[in-house]
Amino acid sequence: MASKNVNKSIVVSGKRKRSIARAVIKEGKGQIRINHIILDKYGNKLSRLRIMEPLIIAGDSLAKKVKIDVNVIGGGWQGQTEASRLAIARALIAYSKDKKLEKDFIEYDRNLLVADVRRNEPSKPNDSKPRAKRTKSYR
After folding, report:
1. How far is CA 42 from CA 39, 73, 96, in A?
2. Number of independent structural domains in the chain
3. What's the CATH number where 105 sits?
4. The pTM is what?
């Protein structure tokens, strides 16, 4: 029986604050889409540069061989940018299975592979803010 060339796709996710990004990586020609928008047209310049960091570190040899589709929901634009960046970096590692690339990501910025688990503190009962207390009036 002849073996078929199966187009493998890997799904990974990344989180930051309230944002959740799911990235699907498969063999392709270096096309990256975020919420069905090509990366060159997505968001502002800062967010594009942040999202492109894992692709630049991975180099053209890997970045030009894959197609990455990212679906990101929730949070603000910076949280979505960080979540997308995390998902793309994790996808590249899962696709290539390269320990050197993983080490390069960690040395550049640990948040490329490890999620930032900080969340905002919930408001306390009968108060509007998490920390500041209501002032007590004595008169």
Report:
1. 5, 14, 25
2. 1
3. 3.30.230.10
4. 0.85
Question: What is the percentage of the chain residues whose pLDDT exceeds 70?
Answer: 96
- Cα–Cα dist 115/120, whole Å: 15
Mean pLDDT (the chain, rounded): 89
Q: How would you classify the pairing of strands 9-16 and 32-34?
A: unpaired
Q: Are strands 19-27 and 9-16 parallel, antiparallel or unpaired?
A: antiparallel
Structure tokens at 62: 């890997």
> Distance of CA 22 to CAs 2, 14, 53, Å?
34, 7, 17
CA distance 43 to 4: 39
Q: Which two tokens stand for residue 9?
A: 């796709």
1 domain-assigned: no
Q: How far is CA 113 from CA 12, 103, 124, 131, in A?
A: 11, 10, 33, 31
Tell me the three state secondary structure of residue 46: helix
* Domain-located, residue 28: yes
